[in-house]
Write a structure and sequence with these properties.
The protein is α+β, with helices and mostly antiparallel strands. The chain is built from 5 helices and 4 strands. Helix 4 packs across helix 5. The N and C termini lie far apart (about 50 Å).
C-alpha cells in the first residue's frame, strides 16, 4: 500500500518513492491497479476520495473523455439520502468489477487471436529470424 501525503499547498508526496507527484501520477496508479491512499499531512485524515473525485472532475471537463452524462449524474444525485443509497453503491461497485473482468478476458482473447493468426505467426517468425541474424552478426564481429 502506497501512502501519499497531501500538503496544505496542494502538493502530493509519495512516501514510498520519497518524491513529489502530481495528479497524473495518481491517475497512473489507479490505471495500474496499485493500492494507495492519500492522507492529509497535518491531520492524517484519509482524503483519497477527494483526490479521486478531483481526477474524475478534471476528466469530465473534457468532452472526449466524459463518461458521466448529465442524465446519469442527476439520477445518481437522486439516490443520495435515500434508503437505496447503500444498495446502489454496492451494485455499481460489483457491476464495474464484473465489467473490468470481462474486459480483461476479452483483451486476452483478442491477443490470443492476433498471436495465432497467420499474420501474428509470420510476425513471430520474422522476430525470431531477426534475433538469430542479430546474434550471428554480433558473434561474427568478435
Amino acid at each position: 500500500m502506497i501512502t501519499i501525503k497531501k500538503y496544505p499547498n496542494r502538493r502530493l508526496y509519495d512516501t514510498a518513492q520519497s518524491q513529489y507527484v502530481n495528479m497524473d501520477y495518481i491517475k497512473s496508479l489507479v490505471k495500474a491497479r496499485t493500492e494507495f491512499n492519500v492522507v492529509d499531512s497535518k491531520t492524517g485524515e484519509d482524503v483519497t476520495k477527494t483526490i479521486l473525485l478531483q481526477i474524475i472532475s478534471e476528466s469530465e471537463t473534457n468532452e472526449h473523455q466524459s463518461i458521466l452524462t448529465n442524465k446519469l449524474l442527476m439520477q445518481l444525485i437522486r439516490f443520495y439520502d435515500s434508503d437505496m443509497q447503500i444498495f446502489l453503491r454496492e451494485y455499481l461497485e460489483q457491476s464495474l468489477v464484473s465489467f473490468m473482468e470481462q474486459q480483461d478476458q476479452l483483451q486476452g482473447m483478442m491477443k490470443n487471436m492476433v498471436d495465432t493468426s497467420p499474420l501474428g505467426l509470420f510476425s513471430k517468425m520474422m522476430e525470431q529470424n531477426l534475433d538469430v541474424w542479430t546474434k550471428s552478426q554480433k558473434s561474427s564481429k568478435k
